[in-house]
Structures are given as structure tokens and as C-alpha cells.
Amino acid sequence: MKRFLGFVKKEFIHIFRDFRTLIILFGIPVVQILLFGFVVSTEIKDAGIAFLDLSKDEISRKVIHKTVSSGFFSYSGELTSFREVDRIMKEGKAKAVVIFEPQFGEKFFREKSAAVSIIADGSEPNTATLITHYLTAIIQNYNQELTGSPAEEIVPVKAEVSMFYNPELKSHFMFVPGVITLILILICALMTSVTITREKEFGTMEVLLVSPLKPIQIILGKVTPYFLLSFINVILILLLSWLVFGLPVKGSVALLLAESMLYILMALSLGILISTVSKTMQQAIFISLVGLLLPTILLSGFIFPIENMHPVYHWVSSILPPRYFITIIKNIMIKGTGLGFVWKETLILAGMTLLFMLFSIRNFKTRLE
Amino acid sequence: MARTTSDIAVKPAIEASGVGKRFGPTRALHNISFSVEEGEIFGFIGPDGAGKSTLFRIITTLIAPDEGKIDVLGNDTVKDFRELRKVIGYMPGRFSLYQDLTVEENLSFYATVFGATIRENYELIRDIYSHIEPFKKRLAGKLSGGMKQKLALSCALIHKPRLLVLDEPTTGVDAVSRAEFWEMLKKLKQHGITIIASTPYMDEAMQCHRVALIQEGKILSVDTPEKIRAGFSRKLFSIRAPEKFRLITALKTFPETLSAYPFGDSVHVTFLNDTPVDSLADRLKKEGVNGAEIVETTPGIEDRFLELMEKPGEG
């Protein structure tokens, strides 16, 4: 036990003396959360919008006024002909142009049907979709104000845009589960595999092997600090997303933390497994990044929905542990479901953890070869 | 061979018989047999790639031999590796220190790992550690080569091992520190610690009780340094001339020349009839070598080593 504690102490010294390790441990999670929260915002703010008013009556002016004052758009000017539509979009001054048909107001009252056409810049499909949605909403809102009932219909001509991203992403909170999943894989698997291969590269592993330390003691001594720090990280991320973005955990926090521990264990054993097959730190980093981080980002359902994937990727995705953790954590955090809904994923994750652990302990050599 | 209990006292600390090791197609070690007495300082001398590190890794249980076996302190290095790992102190070729830990932290880490404390065995390392103790708060990575070496040795000794294995402990260390280092090793003898060390430096052979000359995975000779030196079979001449390279080329053109090796600022030469021809200086002049001084000299261990390398069947 004293040996083990001595080892853990040494690992903590390694971590706290290395600036880069600290950055990866605590800098990256915070930056990622804030980055995803603020920059990768899926809301529209100050999108340039121009108008081509062929009617120029009271109603059309009011719609324009309402749109501009909504706060989502910035006014980029009024056009005089259709030819200008293309120009202003190409110049990048406007992301969308709203066109009112001639006699807009007249038609609105007399025929109870007037048309606006919204042309959006499809080169940014995500923004375009959102703009059209916002505009439609504003116009319909105004419509209601005028007539007092939603039955009246203005038929907006929608821009041809295809949904590129998961519509779920519109929810401001969806990135938190993804970031937790990503960060834990990064810290646990990458850092443990690097710290073990570092001993190999610096030759200190030779002396550790010649010591009475058993492989299990070396492994546990290596992963214990990372287990603790990763757990602190989970709490940090949850606190941050709660304090900064007001994202509460809808389900049981205790269950969420327990599932996180399971996932941390899984990632740690993956890290050890990587270290047993790589001779240098570079190899370990390469395997962790290409073999773990990239698939986690692309195939776990973090960004791209698994349902839309080609069957091959679908299959690959199902052997990736992060995929199950994302499902679990989304369920607990956002839907507020309990263990009853995620027991299957939990079981799969536990099984994988056990498998990786067995492999890595078996693979950890008591000799150099 | 049956042994009785009384024999155990005189049992060798290390007994290797017929050890062989391959790495793919290369033969790192071939039919290595030797024995090291308890309390001895035993040196392995040979150039880089001779197989010294591989042999040391077999002795320290880090790799298993393909053929033969080694008994260390009465334990087989393969079967009883757990037992051996408690009593061996090992200093690998690259000083295995944690660069980001301080001197003191390194020492206390290795002490804990081996289940010892610094205080308990301080006596043993005092002579060595006292040199670096003033810098105990300094990171190991910031130490000079000589200080790193002393710290690595302290770390290898802190659990009072019965066998100390030092793989090229003096490589990359200045001459003064090297001499100091061997003095420290000699002092350890009083604690009854058996020491084996490898080195590519021939002059360090004289510091050992016995040495094994090793070359291309084979042991050429095992004996005391004096006896190895005395094994030199011919008369050796030291020839000095301003242009050493031209001198060697010239000597090699003479049919009487058996060997000619550069040695410091002179050339060590042996001749067919153990005597240089009277007119050697003149003949050298004809080849364009001026001012050659020829004297007979006592062969050193390196001369014997080079001789053994020439005809590996002998010795």
C-alpha cells in the first residue's frame, strides 16, 4: 500500500509540474464548453438582411420594420430590382432577401392572401434554414397581430435549403454531453497511454520492472490520479454548463456521476491497452487521436446523427463505447430518464470496460519484450 | 552437481551457462558462460553493440534468454524473477531518473517502490549522495552528467541490493567523475555488494577485479585485468610520427607488419619476428613518413582485446 501511494504521489507530481498536462486536463474542458456554448451558437444574431419591396404600402413597411427591429437581423438596405438580389448576396452584405409582391397590402386585405418570397444564401445551409424559419415566424406573428387569429395565411416562399446538421443541434444544450464524452476520452485514454509510454521511452520503465512492483500496482498507480482528475472534470463541466448556460441535469445527478465513473474506467483501460501496444509516446498519441478521438467526434452521434449514417459507419459506431455513453448522458441530462431507460447501454459499457481491462492487464508485460 | 548447505557460502553470485539470445535474424548473444564471485567487481568490456546491455537485461530478469540459463544469487532469472527483483539494484544505460522530479523526490520514490526508506540505508549511499545532497531540491533534469550518474547510483542502491548491475555507468560523464565513480564502487565492497558493470572504455577495466571481454555477442576472455594484459603474445612497439595516418598506411604495406592500430598519439605495432627491421625508420622515410620514433612498450588491455578480436578462436 505504501508503495502504491508513493507511486500515486509521483504521478501527481508529474501532472502538476507539467504545464501542458495541466492545460489538457483543465484548460481544454473549459475552453471547449465555452467555445461550443458561445461560438458554435445555433442562434441567429445580426444576420444581414435586405428587402425588395415592390409594393411599398403600409403593410409591407410594417413587416420590414418588425423584421429589422426583431434583433436577429441587421438591415442591409433596400433593393430596387431583382438584379440586385444576386449582387448583394454575392457581396456578402445580406444573408437573405425578403421580396414583397406588388400590391402586397391590397392583396392581404382583399384576397386574404399575400406572398412574400424569402431568398436565402444557401452556401451556409445551416444559417439559411434558420433565417427562413425566423422570418417566417416573424411574418406569421405579425399576421396574427393584424387579424387576431392564426387562421389567416401568408404563404411565404421558402428558400430551397437542405438540412445538413442534426436538427437537434438547435437545442443550445446538446453539446454538453458531447463535450463530456470527448474530454473524458481525451484525458483518460490519451493521457494514460502517453504517461505509460513515457516511462518506456525515458527508460524508467526498466527500473520499475526490475523493482518488486507488480504490473497491477504500476497500472493502478498510473491511472488513479487520472481517475480522480477526470471525475473532478466531469463535475467542473456540469457546474460550468449550469452556471454559464443554465443547463440543469434533469435526471439524477448521482446516476449521471456513477455512469461517468464507469465511462472513465472504460477510457482508462483503453488508455492502458494503447500503451501496451505502443513503444513510443508518438505512437500512443497517434492511436489515441486517430483511433479514438476522431471516431468519437464523427461517429458517436456527437455531431452527426447515427441514424443518418451509411450502414457501414452505423456498424462501426456500434463498437464505439462513446456512442453508448452519449446516449446515456443525453437521456439523463436532457430527457431526465432513469436507469430503467439506459440499462442496456450501461451494460454494454460495463462489458466493454471489463474486456479492455482484462486485455490490458494480460498485455502488460512483466519483461521488456 | 549436488551441493550441500555449506557450499552456499561459496556459491557464485552469478553463474551463466550457454546463454544465447536472438533478435530476429541477429544473434545478440552466443553461448555465453561465466561466473561472478560474491563481493566481486566484475567488468564487461566491449564496443557498442557487443551485447552487453542484452546480457545485463537477462541478468536483471528483464528479458528471457533463448538458450542456456543464468542463476543470480541462487535464483533462476526466468523462473524466480519475482525473488530477484527484490535484491537487484539496476542502473540502465540511460540514467533512469524522472527529469521532472527533484533529486530528493527521485531518491525517495525509488526507496518507496523497493519498500525501503532513505534513512534506513543512508549509510550505504552517504559517500555518493553527499555530493549531490546540497542540490536535493533541484530537478533531476537540470543536473550535470556526473551528478545524474551519482543520483542514479544512489537510487539503485537505496534498497541495499545484494547485486548491483550498472550498464555503462560512465558513458557521457567527464573523466574526473568517472574516476570518482570507480572509487565509490570500490568502497561499496565493504558492504558485501556484488557489482557488475559494463563499459566501452578499456582503461576502466583496470578498476575491476575481473573482466570479461565481449565482442559480437561472444565472450573472448575472462580474467583479471593483469592476466588479460599478460596474455598478449608478442612484443609490442609504439611508433610515433607527425603524420599518423600516413604512418599506418605505410606500416601496412610492409609484409613483416602483423598489426598496426592507432593508440592515442602513437601507433601500436606488432611484427612477424617480434623485432622491427633495423632499417624501419629509413623504409618509413622512403614511404614519406619522416621523424618516426620507435620504442618497445608494455601492452595494455586494449592491445590484448584487439589481438583477441583478430583471432577470436584463441583465448
Polypeptide structure, described:
The complex is a heterodimer of chains A (369) and B (315). By secondary structure, chain A is α/β, with parallel strands linked by helices. Chain A has helices at residues 2-17, 19-39, 58-68, 83-90, 104-110, 125-147, 175-202, 204-210, 215-245, 253-277, 281-299, 311-318, 321-335, 339-363, and strands at 47-53, 73-79, 96-100, 115-120, 155-157. Chain A has a 5-stranded mixed β-sheet, with helices on both faces. The longest helix of chain A has 31 residues, at 215-245. Chain A is elongated and about 95 Å long. By secondary structure, chain B is α/β, with parallel strands linked by helices. Chain B folds into 2 domains: 5-224, 3-Layer(aba) Sandwich (Rossmann fold), CATH 3.40.50; 233-298, 2-Layer Sandwich (Alpha-Beta Plaits), CATH 3.30.70. Chain B has 10 helices and 14 strands. Chain B has helices spanning 52-59, 81-87, 103-113, 122-132, 145-157, 175-188, 225-230, 244-253, 280-286, 301-310; strands at residues 14-23, 26-36, 41-45, 67-72, 75-76, 88-91, 163-166, 194-199, 210-215, 218-223, 236-240, 257-263, 266-271, 293-297. In chain B, the strands form 3 sheets. In chain B, strands 6-7-8-3-9-10 form a 6-stranded mixed β-sheet, sandwiched between helices. Chain B has a 4-stranded antiparallel β-sheet with strand order 2-1-4-5, covered by helices on one side. A 4-stranded antiparallel β-sheet of chain B has the order 12-13-11-14, covered by helices on one side. In chain B, helix 3 (103-113) packs parallel to helix 5 and helix 4 (122-132) packs antiparallel against helix 5 (145-157). Classes of the chains: A alpha/beta (369), B alpha/beta (315). The A-B interface holds A 2-3, 5-7, 9-10, 13-14, 17-18, 202-204, 206-213, 366-369 and B 57, 60-64, 81-82, 85-86, 88, 90, 92-101, 105, 108-110, 112-115, 155-156.
